[in-house]
Amino acid sequence: MRCHNAASISDSGQSDQSRVQWWSVDWMFVASIIPPMVTAAMPHAAEGATPAVAGSANCLIVDDEPSVRRSLSRTLQAQGFHCLEACSGRQALQVLEKTGEIPLIISDMKMPELDGMAFLEVVRRQFPDSSVIMLSGMSETTTAVDCLHLGAADFLLKPISLSELQARVSRALEKRALVLQNRFYQQHLEHQVQAQAQRIQELFLQGVQMLARALEAKDAYTRGHSMRVSQYAVATASRLGFTGQGLEGIRLGGELHDIGKIGTREAVLHKPTSLTPEEVREITELPALGERMLSPLAHESPDVLKIVRSHHERLDGRGFPDGLRGEKIPIEARIVAVADSFDAMTTRRPYREARPPVEAMGELRKVAGTQLDPEAVEAFVASYPDPSVLPIPA
Ligand SMILES: [Fe+2]
Q1: Ligand 1 centre distance from Cα of residue 197 (Å)
Q2: Euclidean distance between CA atoms 174 and 193, whole angstroms
Q3: CA-CA distance, 259 to 276, in Å (whole number)?
Q4: How far apart are the CA of 217 and the centre of ligand 1, in A?
Q5: How many CB atoms lie within 10 A of CB 223?
Q6: What is d(CA 345, CA 340) in angstroms, rounded to the nearest whole number?
Q7: How far, in Å, is the centroid of ligand 1 from the Cα of 233?
Q8: What distance in angstroms lies between residue 268's CA and the mean position of ligand 1's atoms?
Q9: Which of the 8 DSSP states describes residue 294?
Q10: Distance between CA 269 and CA 265 in Å, rounded?
Q11: pLDDT (average), residues 20-30
């Protein structure tokens, strides 16, 4: 419903209330989305301004002219708004301090103490979700533009046509509602997208873990290898000071370090005799293949990918796939390399028997500094002063 009337509020505050019929269907919608606010009792204001009172308020009228305030207030209250009044920017800020954010603020430009422009600046900073409509008796374009630049929802010239006020208030509050809704949807969607991405990654990880365990279990020589490597690596890393996410990355990296072996011919993996050059190439490509398989974890678990790619590197640079030397090899991969070597030695192979843990520990120390990281070796050995507690396969 669109109303056409000549009702207006001037600087003298005179209005023709009897002819005002400007509550349209849109207004009902706009009013329905403005939350009522519980306001605290305010000390009586100076200069006859109506003080803030306890109750619900969704509009604050700021003008040094009592008749303008009263007129605007009466008009808006007749339409369902609960209005508070203030006679200056300073008093309006006192009101806002007590009430918190008020959805709609209508403020004059020229006021004592704190003028409209300065008031607007503070409101935008402290109560950015309040919609502020500025009023002025002067038709200066620059002032209007300045107000809009500062974040005013609109700028109205006195005398104010009530139908114009209706349209402007309606538009300002609709815009505010859309901004708030948008923000809510954005935050809600961001949260949902984040939760879904995390779930997708969890499902991917579960799938990879199940596949790795199933393939490993088929082979008597590798059964339980990944879980033992993970356990040894966590014990070593804990001793080296890893905690929290860092330790979790090593646990998972240990569990998945051989993931690249999936799909590799068993005849090659367990060949008791020397490998052909082609077979060597196939083996040396496994870490990079594993890294590619786990690429969906790159963002959330980068340490896992480092371990998968670099756990066959050697300190002397003679490892693969990149021939990294010393500290160029990620520490996480150096730790897993120690655990991997130990489990390989203490597990029976088709071409040899398992070596006793104490002997295998001695072997680790022998290659510390050339093949393995000496600190990681010592941390591993120190983690198991009693080798009988090691989860060596039967
Ligand atoms: Fe391994």
Answers
A1: 29
A2: 28
A3: 22
A4: 14
A5: 15
A6: 9
A7: 12
A8: 15
A9: T
A10: 6
A11: 34
